[in-house]
Amino acid sequence: MAKIEVRNLSKIFGKRPKPALEMLREKRSKDEILKETGLTVGVNRATFDVEEGEVFVIMGLSGSGKSTLVRLLNRLIDPTDGQIQLDGDDLAKMDKQALNEVRRKKMSMVFQKFGLFPFRTILQNVEYGLEIQGMEKAERKKKATESLALVGLKGYEDQYPDQLSGGMQQRVGLARALANDPDILLMDEAFSALDPLIRKDMQDELLDLQVTMQKTIVFITHDLDEALRIGDRIMIMKDGAIVQIGTPEDILMNPADEYVRRFVEDVDRSKVYTAENIMIRPETINGEKDGARVALKRMRDANISSIYVVNRSRQLQGIVHAADIAEAVKNDERDIRPYIQTDVPTCEKTMPMHDLFDLTSTSSVPIAVVGENNKLEGIVIRSQILAALSGKEVNIVE
């Protein structure tokens, strides 16, 4: 279910934007509009949905329009044209009073710069938004304390900002946003000012919090690794326009154009792809009905030296090897069950590709990908991992 629905949202910076809007409708470029009108396109007819409870990442290079877009979502910047529906209400048409109510109760923002008051304690900083709402002192202290505990800062209530590290200060900013218990968190380059190790810790913190909070999060970044790490879906922007929206796997495997392709070409795919992305359809035999001759013929036809055995429900039984089955045929044996080896490497579809490296390096047979009730879904072979790492197309089990 969509929490936020954006339709044909545009922002033109400058006076008398009508001619520029008309040029946008004609699909004229940002540079053409600037040259002919002197106006700057911030956002170009953006249309997208943000689902309730998802982490929706908006990314792009400097000047792509991502930060302008997030400020349009809470009307820190007023749109030139288009709609922003929040739970069915159009933010673009709200008066100041209604908009302030949304900002107080439904939507909070976390900025790149922490924006903490140096002469207020950490608790007082987190209380600030509740204070200006007029909340009673005991209640706002309770909420602020709970928010600090949520981000791992219990015990730091009486410290001052300059006594905390950069990562801890950013946690204070996050706690301040959470104190209102908003439905939506808007996070604009929230971690980009942090050192790499602290930044990764904050990404982990956000993902851990999201498991319990289940907020709708719109996260702005210019860092693709960060986007791939935390995003349920990613929207890539260029010159104010949306280029592609998709899951991390969609973006990596099917880039929409050369711009996106350049974005993803240096990404460590092993941290994004899962077994499901690289598994192939396996050759199998039914151990309940297929005999030794059928098994041997199927291996010869497929030019493979081993084959996985399943039952009628496609539950994995194990694996048999061509040499063993050839010996069974030579001895005029039909039943393959005595030759089934049950000690085979398995994984779930969600296992990240980098975790498959050790399995494939120590196994002489493909990795069996199993689902619910041990059903065989596919297999992972070493060549598929190498193909995925090189950025080549991989075969997906449908």
Q: What are the key terms here?
A:
398 residues, alpha/beta, Rossmann fold, CBS-domain, 2 domains, four-stranded antiparallel sheet, 16 helices, 22% strand, elongated
General description of the model:
The structure is a single chain. The protein has helices spanning 18-25, 30-37, 66-73, 96-105, 122-132, 137-150, 166-178, 196-213, 224-230, 248-253, 258-264, 275-278, 292-302, 322-330, 353-362, 382-389; strands spanning 2-13, 40-51, 55-59, 81-86, 89-90, 107-110, 184-188, 216-221, 233-238, 241-246, 284-286, 306-310, 316-321, 346-347, 367-370, 376-380. With 398 residues, it is an alpha/beta fold. It has two domains: 2-271, 3-Layer(aba) Sandwich (Rossmann fold), CATH 3.40.50; 275-390, CBS-domain (Roll). Helix 5 (122-132) crosses helix 6 (137-150), helix 6 (137-150) packs across helix 7 and helix 13 (292-302) crosses helix 14. Residues 393-398 have low confidence and may be disordered.
